[in-house]
Amino acid sequence: MPEGPEVHREADKIRKAIGGQTPIYLYFYHDHLKPFEKELADRKVENVEAYGKGLVISFEEDAHIYSHNQLYGKWYIKPAGETPKTNRQLRLEIRTHQKSALLYSASEIDVLDSESLEEHPYLSKLGPDLLKDVEKETVMEQTRDDRFRRKSFASLLLDQGFLGGVGNYLRTEILFDARIHPKMRPMDLNDAQLEQFTESALLITNRSYQTGGITTPDDLVKRLKSNGSRRRNYRHYLFGREDQPCYECGTTVKKEQMSGRRIYICESCQEG
């Protein structure tokens, strides 16, 4: 499933393609949304913004298309009227004179006014989005909140109410950068460790957004590239690197299942 950095980059791409323009054609796959094909076709696209893993395209006169990619959804930007070569099912198209923004295979799409958008089950419960200029103290407050402080980080970092947009690969990478074992809880950490977690959460998430999904620092990437490593090997510290050596200490990376998802751990760098 795309995580916050990927959805924010998609929002940037869509905004650049159709932002500030008035669509000449809209297509909705779902029958209950068909009436909006004509209704939105004469309204300018005012903004495109990501909220965690959700995406909102806002039109004039208080209309918003909300979408969530879930596991299989994917956006494409093509010249107006063209479609990509894919076996996916087209769910939504917004076409201007120059570009088409096409959403394939997404299972959750709706058209809402502002009030309904605020009350949406996903958006209304979303925690701070680390890619929206969130202050460190805001993240620290989440770790001290009674709703979260007694839960393991392995569980918390999959809870969109804790930090919006964080998912499975970010969970592994943030905890490694912070040197926190996934089974630990916020209440187990001292203030310095909580501050390190906060800094790592912001750093890793923003780095992934800026680099297109790379969570390792530039100096490590350059070193690994110079040694002939491919992207899948230098992209992450631990995620997807089971049985390979940790880049920091050389300990073999382990894969476990926590909260129903795979997670990768360096037992030396992340002592419990």
UniProtKB/TrEMBL annotation:
It is an enzyme of class 4 (lyase). Residues 2-118 form the Formamidopyrimidine-DNA glycosylase catalytic domain. Keywords: DNA damage, DNA repair, DNA-binding, Endonuclease, Glycosidase, Hydrolase, Lyase, Metal-binding, Multifunctional enzyme, Nuclease, Zinc, Zinc-finger. InterPro entries: FPG_cat, FPG_N, H2TH_FPG, Ribosomal_uS13-like_H2TH, Znf_DNA_glyclase/AP_lyase. The keyword DNA repair applies. The keyword Hydrolase applies. GO terms for molecular function: class I DNA-(apurinic or apyrimidinic site) endonuclease activity; damaged DNA binding; oxidized pyrimidine nucleobase lesion DNA N-glycosylase activity; zinc ion binding. GO terms for biological process: base-excision repair. Gene3D superfamilies: 1.10.8.50, MutM-like, N-terminal. It holds the Pfam family Fapy_DNA_glyco. It comes from the Bacteria. Its EC number is 4.2.99.18. Residues 237-271 form the FPG-type domain. Belongs to the FPG family. This is DNA-(apurinic or apyrimidinic site) lyase. It comes from Rhodohalobacter mucosus.
